[in-house]
Automatic annotation (TrEMBL), chain A:
Residues 41-100 are annotated as: Disordered. This is Spermatogenesis-defective protein 39 homolog. The gene is VIPAS39. Its main location: cytoplasm. One of its GO terms (cellular component) is late endosome. Residues 69-80 have a biased composition (Polar residues).
UniProtKB/TrEMBL annotation, chain B:
It is found in: Cytoplasmic vesicle, Autophagosome; Cytoplasmic vesicle, Clathrin-coated vesicle; Early endosome; Late endosome membrane. The keyword Ligase does not apply. GO terms for biological process: autophagosome maturation; endosome to lysosome transport; lysosome localization; melanosome localization; platelet formation; protein transport; regulation of developmental pigmentation; regulation of lysosomal lumen pH. It comes from Sciurus vulgaris (Eurasian red squirrel). Belongs to the STXBP/unc-18/SEC1 family. This is Vacuolar protein sorting-associated protein 33A.
Amino acid sequence: MNRTKGDEEEYWNSSKFKAFTFDDEDDELSQLKESKRAVNSLRDFVDDDDDDDLERVSWSGEPVGSRTRPGSFQSLSDALSDTPAKSYAPELGRPKGEYRDYSNEWSPSDTVRRLRKGKVCSLERFRSLQDKLQLLEEAVSMHDGNVITAVLIFLKRTLSKEILFRELEVRQVALRHFIHFLKEIGDQKLLLDLFRFLDRTEELALSQYREHLNIQDPEKRKEFLKTCIGLPFSAEDSAHIQDHYTLLERQIIIEANDRHLESAGQTEIFRKHPRKASILNMPLVTTLFYSCFYHYTEPEGTFSSPINLKKTFKIPDKQYVLTALAARAKLRAWHDVDALFTTKNWLGYTKKRAPIGFHRVVEILHKNSAPVQILQEYVNLVEDVDTKLNLATKFKCHDVVIDTCRDLKDRQQLLAYRSKVDKGSAEEEKIDTILSSSQIRWKN
Amino acid sequence: MAAHLSYGRVNLNVLREAVRRELREFLDKCAGSKAIVWDEYLTGPFGLIAQYSLLKEHEVEKMFTLKGSRLPAADVKNIIFFVRPRLELMDVIAENVLSEDRRGPARDFHILFVPRRSLLCEQRLKDLGVLGSFIHREEYSLDLIPFDGDLLSMESEGAFKECYLEGDQTSLYHAAKGLMTLQALYGTIPQIFGKGECARQVANMMIRMKREFTGSQNSIFPVFDNLLLLDRNVDLLTPLATQLTYEGLIDEIYGIQNSYVKLPPEKFAPKKQGEGGKDLPTEAKKLQLNSAEELYAEIRDKNFNAVGSVLSKKAKIISAAFEERHNAKTVGEIKQFVSQLPHMQAARGSLANHTSIAELIKDVTTSEDFFDKLTVEQEFMSGIDTDKVNNYIEDCIAQKHPLIKVLRLVCLQSVCNSGLKQKVLDYYKREILQTYGYEHILTLYNLEKAGLLKPQTGGRNNYPTIRKTLRLWMDDVNEQNPTDISYVYSGYAPLSVRLAQLLSRPGWRSIEEVLRILPGPHFEERQPLPTGLQKKRQPGENRVTLIFFLGGVTFAEIAALRFLSQLEDGGTEYVIATTKLMNGSSWIEALMERPS
């Protein structure tokens, strides 16, 4: 360690500097202050001396996690129980001679400067509100988040909530740091109080709602969500929160019921397709899929029926059909798939209609490895001819390709397709028959 | 060791050496044998400035990852924790210290905070009753880490969220400190330009820090001519689009971490005869990507469509070089050939690696879905159909594509429309919540707060004005031999880089109107230099601009800036600094809410 440096520190810290008063800008000492600043900030960049070790003692303050100590901010006297004599005790073999530094009259500005360099400073000396606020303003003007937080912890502990909130409200930068700090230490209660005080209702609501993520037990989570329903969300979000609650409520009922059915081993669907995971906390669409998979035929009156979910959550037709299709296709229940797209008009004629477009139906069926006969049926229902031809080619629905080419009188394409089907297959034969037909007036 | 850092206009090895020295000095303070316990996040960034050999020279005998309960046995005198100042890590450290076996040999504990000591953390250690156990508690101000000859990053993953959501300026303070360190090493930067709230703050902090610094005159001849500070929220658009440069795509698909990428091993299986494809490696292939590799330096910033031809050209050159051996007749010629072998073999290895990577990427870029996604992105960026519900996005939700992908697209649409119509926004929101879970309401709120996803206010879409004035969309883009920065997104010119380009020529005065539309103030500051240090530029000599992205930068933007640096008559060379190297996905991910 560098002896001279140490002496210099001693000099600055203990003798001359004591006499310095904050307001005396013209004083010759202010020049000293300037150069001390320079020396100090220089150290931030270039100084690699280790004399810092001597200075390091504990930084005093109270437990920050007021979750364990609700209301720790009440009063000054509370704070003072943490007496300076105790908390300034040197920890790391600091020479005794340095004690007196801490009884010195550091100005708020110098205190903040020392804090910024990671040195120890007592904040307890600042008792008047004015001093404390000056401390805060100095910290904010330094922009150093670490120091701002340190001062905020001190203010949180030594000011009443009302005064603290009031003063922070007019100091936006400090306020934002305070909110971030409360989030970090998880002081949810004080955070909510603060939002309430500031009348920031949406943040208040979201911040409270966020808590549910940390509740594992489904019943408790449900109860918690129930308390969120009345929170001041925007109208749109309010509806989503209500739905979130209702969904979990449903899931709990369905889960209990199905777990029972599954373990009883009497229900075919659960025996053939054991559940991979619990339905609790799954998204709505996943729940709908589950319900279409395990409870498709149930009457509307049961909580687990797809129709009931559709109505309760106002699931749009498109979304419903898409999900039901995926679930029934996975079970290879082609009859259900067929029924999904069959509508009867008032004369009793049936018609095929798909709100999602038949090209999507085909994609989903293919993903669930539907047999060609089934695929073919739906490829044929695709209206746009180009799309139809593309899908048919992609999924090897030979008949559709061949028939479409014939209808388009596209001889070239048909010829080209002939090379893609198996030699000697029925398809090849069919193509040959068509190509040799004299009935068709080919366009090429 | 890191020669590639000194290839550029500014020798960043100077910075690397400075931080290495600081590390050595700390290690020597803890005399005797040592073990380091690592906050895992830090090992990546540290790897860029020091290898294990450096630590070993300073008596580091063991290294552990920080985790709960008891520390592994190690016969060392010192245990040093290298950690970020985070509360949850303090709890783990306390657990380690408290479960230390008292009967064993006494060991000294130390803690090194990176990049900064935190009073809050020390308070936590005190509450847990272990603060007194540490002999040295220090900070290691690794603010800016040199990644390449022209690239510095703070690798602070939370910076964007802190700055633009929480309004916490801590990372800005670190940015300012990092800039002060740079100025201490490379001289005072005479001119500072900036755009955005955070840029303004950082400039203020720098000016203040400089004032406090007046005791000593910086006598280093300035290397940088300008500093440009740019807020990420001035250009929210660029990171949302899919990067189409080689390096950008590697990052989009596999994620580059601290200049390393992990790739699926199949394509890198050593081709040995008689093994018939068995024993395929199962562990990911890890490669370092930086300009130390000649071939990579050449292709990293090209549009991916221009990479294939370079690779095949290289292949021909290398095989021709190997063929030379047949022409080597005399002993001298053979000797000459042999002496070149190591270099040739390295080149061949490098070529093989990048051919494999290019194949992997091609599998993705030629997929139907990639094409569809790109089409939608390009429509949005060129201003087509941004005001109604998009079919492709709807399909992505219906097919439950990854939420981040969906959010990126929805945000892109919102940004390209200066906010979505309320009806459209509500529709997307509802679909997303129903499909991915209601709890994402929190994430959507964060995106809204960051300005990424919002309702259009005032019924006015400013994007077309911005697009036209700044020429953000170029129809005739040349991917092979680019003439404009728009090649990095195959048509879209990154807004942030366009601002830098226009600043250098003809100056921002020409785009005052657009600057007023973009968020935050724009400004200029001068830092006077003593006459002795004022630069007399030689005719034809380029300026050097340090451009600092506050809130993150993408590889495609870096590529665009390198393109500008290399222009014959560009007049400006760029060194790039940022709070974090990122892409649209890592960005959105950092804004998502998770259980605490």
